[in-house]
Every structure is written in structure tokens, then in C-alpha cells.
């Protein structure tokens, strides 16, 4: 995905060792610049005073390869669309017996968060007048319908789902 660069003397970029398979810091900077140019040159309709958020997180997957996950309220494409609902930054942690979904939802109360396990994922929704979030997180496996736990503290939502075999359930989750 990223190209490793050589420095002026022909040696390796000093950031290569730190970033490993993600490539060099300069490569990431170039990628972000291209993404932003693409957004502004695409003809996307961005309303004055309406915030837009777009970013990505990077981590190493279980196979040791880089995983890049996009987030925000801008959906890139031929003509990017800016949504009223922001897409929260989400991380999925896989364990032997459970799947943990962690989402950043700052500025809301736990009563404003609706969670639902749907076919293939976890749906996160917030719809207050001042904050709107929406994301369907793809789950890496089936979860047990009767063993789910969710907590919300300081803008961070944590949902623990017990793994199971078979068809994925659809059930609302109450936040403690």
C-alpha cells in the first residue's frame, strides 16, 4: 500500500523501522494530502457552517498486515456525500470467547445511544439535536444473543459480545 522511500544518501527512511509495514511517515502524509485533494476537487457539496470529519486509523491485523479503517461523516466516492451523522472512530478487539467493540462518542449521554446487534454487525446510533453518530460495525464472528454487556464512560462506549457458533442474532442492548 505504501512505498518505502530512500533518503538523499540512498539509505532507508529513518521512519521506516518505526512504521514497519505501514510505510514511511512521508508516505502517510502524501496519502492524506491526496485524499483531501480528492475530496475538495470532487465537486462534493459541503454546506457552509456544517462540519465534516474524515480520517483513518491504522493498526496491525492478526495476520501481521496493516489494517486501515476510515471514519467520519464524509463518504468518499465518485461524488463524496457529507452526512448529518458522524461515523465514530471504532476499534474491534477479538478474544477467544468474546468480541469487544470500542467506540468514541463524545458529547452524548448514555441514554442517547441506541445499540442493536443486526445480521453481520453491531449498529451504533445517536440522534440528539446537537450530536448525531451512526455506524454499523462488522463483527468478525457470530455472537450469543443472551450474553452482551455495554458501558459508557467519558465519551467511550465499550460493548462486550460473547462469541457463539451459528446464525447471528438481532437484539437491542441496554447500556449500564
One letter per element, helices H and strands E, the order comes to HHEEEEEEEEEEEE
Q: Briefly, what CATH class of the largest domain?
A: Mainly Beta
Name the structural class.
mainly beta
Backbone CA Rg: 19 Å
The total of beta strands comes to 12
Question: What portion of the residues fall into strands of 2 or more residues?
Answer: 35-45%
Question: In the CATH classification, which architecture of the largest domain applies?
Answer: Sandwich
Helix content: 10-25%
Topology:
Blueprint: H1 16-19, H2 25-41, E1 54-60, E2 66-72, E3 74-75, E4 81-82, E5 90-94, E6 98-104, E7 113-118, E8 121-127, E9 132-138, E10 143-153, E11 156-163, E12 171-173
Antiparallel strand pairs: 1-2, 3-4, 5-6, 6-11, 7-8, 7-12, 8-9, 10-11
Structural overview:
With 176 residues, the chain is mainly β. The protein has two domains: 1-83, no CATH class; 84-176, Immunoglobulin-like (Sandwich), CATH 2.60.40. The chain contains two helices and twelve strands, in the order H-H-E-E-E-E-E-E-E-E-E-E-E-E. It has helices at 16-19, 25-41; strands spanning 54-60, 66-72, 74-75, 81-82, 90-94, 98-104, 113-118, 121-127, 132-138, 143-153, 156-163, 171-173. The strands form four sheets. A four-stranded antiparallel sheet has the order 5-6-11-10, with no helix packed on it. It has a four-stranded antiparallel sheet with strand order 9-8-7-12, with no helix packed on it. Strands 1-2 form a two-stranded antiparallel sheet. The chain is globular. The termini are far apart.
Amino acid at each position: 500500500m505504501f512505498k518505502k522511500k530512500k533518503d538523499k544518501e540512498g539509505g532507508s527512511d529513518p521512519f521506516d523501522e518505526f512504521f514497519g509495514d505501514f510505510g514511511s511517515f512521508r508516505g502517510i502524509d502524501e496519502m492524506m494530502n491526496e485524499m483531501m485533494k480528492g475530496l475538495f476537487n470532487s465537486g462534493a457539496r459541503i454546506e457552509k457552517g456544517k462540519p465534516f470529519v474524515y480520517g483513518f486509523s491504522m493498526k496491525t491485523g492478526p495476520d501481521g498486515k496493516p489494517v486501515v479503517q476510515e471514519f467520519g461523516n464524509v463518504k468518499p466516492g465518485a461524488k463524496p456525500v457529507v452526512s448529518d451523522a458522524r461515523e465514530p472512530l471504532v476499534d474491534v478487539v477479538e478474544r477467544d470467547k468474546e468480541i469487544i467493540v470500542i467506540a468514541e462518542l463524545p458529547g452524548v449521554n448514555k441514554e442517547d445511544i441506541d445499540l442493536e446487534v443486526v445480521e453481520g454487525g453491531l449498529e451504533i446510533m445517536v440522534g440528539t439535536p446537537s450530536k448525531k453518530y451512526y455506524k454499523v460495525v462488522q463483527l468478525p464472528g457470530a455472537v450469543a444473543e443472551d450474553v452482551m454487556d455495554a458501558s459508557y464512560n467519558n465519551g467511550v462506549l465499550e460493548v462486550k459480545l460473547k462469541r457463539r457458533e451459528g446464525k447471528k442474532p438481532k437484539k437491542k442492548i441496554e447500556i449500564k
